[in-house]
Every structure is written in structure tokens, then in C-alpha cells.
Specification:
With about 120 residues, this protein is an all-beta fold. It is built from no helices and eleven strands.
């Protein structure tokens, strides 16, 4: 059974940090990414990483504050989030592609999704 299970969300004060984890199982994945969805808004791209980890891509809103990484031996992808802001409040979703061709911000190209983890940064 293919699964992506996120963890690490929670409530953190502005300026604080959180590290999200996404444990994958059931198959080997290619490119992986993080998306988020705030209340009343559409799901948006946050970051993506190639299978090798050598290529990454970030949304402008998180560039310089968030870092995506992966450990293929553990089938896990991480999102280190620093200098968190109230506008980072959202449900964060892990996503995976079965291939690793080019990093895309388009959610339609990701084949598997996790259930999401809530991140709340009070204003």
C-alpha cells in the first residue's frame, strides 16, 4: 500500500521554527514536494526536490526561510521552516511523483498525496 504520512506540524509563534517530515512507503518515489492550503484559499506550491536531492525549487514566499531535503534511505522528505510568519498558517501536504524528470510546481503532476499536517502561526 502506497502511503505518504506527514508529521511535525503544530502551533508556533511568529519567528519560530518547525520541521515537517513525510514518510513514504509502498514504492520508490521520484520528485517530491510540499504544498499548502490556507482556509478559503487554493492549494499552493511550497517546495520540491528531485530524487537525488541535487535540485530544489521554492515558492518566492518561502525562499530563504524554508529548506526541503530528503533521505532516500529512510524514504523520508523534510521541510525545515524557519522565521515562520502568520501567513504561513495552512495545512501542509506532502506530494510525490513516480518519476524524476523535472521539478514542477503544478500539483496535477504529482501522483500521491499525504493527508496533511496543520501548521499554525498566530498573529
Amino acid at each position: 500500500q502506497v502511503q505518504l504520512v506527514e508529521s511535525g506540524g503544530g502551533l508556533v509563534q511568529a519567528g519560530g521554527s518547525l520541521r515537517l517530515s513525510c514518510a513514504a512507503s509502498g514504492r520508490t518515489f521520484g520528485d517530491m514536494g510540499w504544498f499548502r492550503q490556507a482556509p478559503g484559499k487554493e492549494r499552493e506550491f511550497v517546495a520540491a526536490i528531485s530524487w537525488s536531492g541535487s535540485n530544489t525549487n521554492y515558492a518566492d514566499s518561502v525562499k530563504g526561510r524554508f529548506t526541503i531535503s530528503r533521505d532516500n534511505a529512510k524514504n523520508t522528505v523534510y521541510l525545515q521552516m524557519n522565521s515562520l510568519k502568520p501567513e504561513d498558517t495552512a495545512v501542509y501536504y506532502c506530494a510525490a511523483k513516480v518519476n524524476s524528470d523535472y521539478l514542477t510546481r503544478n500539483s496535477r503532476f504529482y501522483h500521491y498525496w499525504g493527508q496533511g499536517t496543520q501548521v499554525t502561526v498566530p498573529s
